[in-house]
Amino acid sequence: MSHTIYYRARNSALFCAGLNPTFLPLSPKSPIKYDKIRTMINKGRILRSLAGFYDVQTEDSQVYQTRARGNFRKKGMKPVVGDFVDFSAEENSEGYVLDIYERKNQLIRPSVANIDQAVVIMSTVSPDFSLNLLDRFLVFLEHKQIRPLIYISKLDLVEAGSFEQIKSDYEAIGYAIFFDEAELRDELKGKVTVFMGQTGVGKTTLLNKLAPEMELATGETSEKLGRGRHTTRHVELYPLMEGLIADTPGFSSLDYEVDNQPDLNEAFPEILRISHACKFRECSHTHEPDCAVKTALEAGEILASRYQNYTQLLSEINQTREHYVKQGKKQT
Ligand SMILES: Nc1nc2c(ncn2[C@@H]2O[C@H](COP(=O)(O)OP(=O)(O)OP(=O)(O)O)[C@@H](O)[C@H]2O)c(=O)[nH]1
Ligand SMILES: [Zn+2]
């Protein structure tokens, strides 16, 4: 590790410790005594994970290559891309991740932590557009406190204007929905964004439009080249529009633990807003009397498809719960 980097690391570490680094000799004219200060603890964010190495970026944009100390594995913890970590920067050697800060949220595929927002890509056709799948993605993200941004791909394959109604319906709920990657690009500023959608919707195509320099192979090109897709098992947060985007699109399927999810109301913003007017505080909006949500549904203030998907998910959650309860009884 070069001295310049070492100095910066030290500087940043002192910032983290709440000390003013200007009080210390940092110019090359007054070198640091390495035997006295051999290891500095630094704070940064993991941008890349590859073959047991983690590239950590500090606040002053320096990138350090680190490894995780063995004790992480013993604790069943593994640093992931997006993690904020304390790490050691040592003279003439790689650093070590020492501690992982509490995660705001985490996704398994791609393995990324502390995500601000996700672009849900839905194609008009091939695969066919599905409001049910869209709502499932939205519920998944709401529960993880990740802001959803909806992007509709393959609009060139349908009649102009076919998706305007869906756009205005979802905007009325409060979701941002995009037909155009230029508009979407503006939303990436200063945020950590992941891309998700079924296989073939055009995730890679969109990523390539947003960041051509990443040169990701789309279905078409990788078939032409005769090699499998996503062969590299690495995840990287890629700087774009003063933000970071995950270069590995994910989520062909949504397998998540419904049982651990909080109230389904929370995942349907328009239902949540109205539910405060229901007679019963615990109203499920299915069979209870004086349900404000059902009244709103009848008045056309809540989309029929949204209500239908809500009740479908609710019964799936209840079935899963019953299943677990029965299993639990059998075991005891
Ligand atoms: N006509 C049209 N085709 C598109 C569009 N976007 C993507 N495609 C095509 O759809 C196919 C799948 O696109 P990809 O970008 O590989 O899709 P993906 O979501 O990354 O797919 P997976 O890697 O399987 O998850 C390719 O043949 C693309 O050329 C679009 O806006 N219009
Ligand atoms: Zn109700």
UniProtKB/TrEMBL annotation:
GO cellular component terms listed in the entry, alphabetical order: cytoplasm
Domain EngC GTPase: 113-252
Annotated EC: 3.6.1.-
CP-type G domain boundaries: 104-254
Cofactor(s) needed: Zn(2+)
Keyword terms of this UniProt record: Cytoplasm, GTP-binding, Hydrolase, Metal-binding, Nucleotide-binding, Ribosome biogenesis, RNA-binding, rRNA-binding, Zinc
SUPFAM superfamilies: Nucleic acid-binding proteins (SSF50249), P-loop containing nucleoside triphosphate hydrolases (SSF52540)
Residue ranges of coiled coil: none
Subunit structure, interactors included: Monomer. Associates with 30S ribosomal subunit, binds 16S rRNA.
Protein name: Small ribosomal subunit biogenesis GTPase RsgA
Source organism of this protein record: Lactococcus termiticola
Gene: rsgA
